C-alpha cells in the first residue's frame, strides 16, 4: 500500500491553488487610489525616532464622520440580516405541511 503519490498530489494541488490565489487582482484597492496618490512622490525614509517624536496622527472631523456613517450603515445591514427570512404566516403554512388532495370516489374507475 503506497500513500506517497496521493500525499504528493494533494501537496501539489494545494501549492497550485495558493499560487493561483496569489495572482488575483484586487480592483477595489486600485479604485480607492486617487490620482493625487498615484502621482505623489515616494515619502522620505526617516529614522523611527523622528516619527515617534512628532505629534500623534489625528483624524479630521470629515474622516470621523465618514467612518461613523459607514459603521452605522454596516450595523443597520447586520440588523437586517438578523431578521427572519420567512415571515410568520408563511412559517405557519409551512408547519402545516402539504396536504394531498383527497381522491374523489366518483372519478376512480
- What are the segments in which pLDDT stays under 50 over at least 5 consecutive residues? none
Radius of gyration from the alpha-carbon trace, in angstroms: 31 Å
Number of separate strands: 0
Distance between the termini: 64 Å
General description of the model:
The protein is an all-alpha fold and 109 residues long. The protein has six helices and no strands. The chain is elongated, with a radius of gyration of 31 Å. The mean pLDDT is 81.
Question: How do the strands and helices of this protein lay out in sequence?
Answer:
Elements: H1 4-22, H2 27-32, H3 35-39, H4 48-53, H5 61-82, H6 88-96
Organism: Litorisediminicola beolgyonensis
Protein name: DUF3035 domain-containing protein
Region (Disordered): 90-109
Short description:
The protein is an all-alpha fold. It has helices spanning 4-22, 27-32, 35-39, 48-53, 61-82, 88-96.
Features:
6 helices; mainly alpha; 109 residues; DUF3035 domain-containing protein
Amino acid at each position: 500500500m503506497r500513500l506517497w503519490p496521493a500525499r504528493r498530489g494533494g501537496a501539489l494541488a494545494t501549492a497550485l491553488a495558493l499560487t493561483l490565489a496569489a495572482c488575483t487582482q484586487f480592483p477595489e484597492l486600485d479604485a480607492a487610489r486617487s490620482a493625487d496618490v498615484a502621482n505623489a512622490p515616494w515619502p522620505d525614509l526617516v529614522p523611527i525616532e523622528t516619527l515617534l517624536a512628532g505629534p500623534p496622527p489625528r483624524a479630521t472631523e470629515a474622516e470621523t464622520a465618514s467612518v461613523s456613517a459607514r459603521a452605522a450603515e454596516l450595523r443597520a445591514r447586520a440588523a437586517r440580516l438578523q431578521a427572519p427570512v420567512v415571515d410568520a404566516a408563511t412559517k405557519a403554512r409551512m408547519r402545516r405541511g402539504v396536504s394531498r388532495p383527497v381522491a374523489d370516489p366518483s372519478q376512480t374507475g
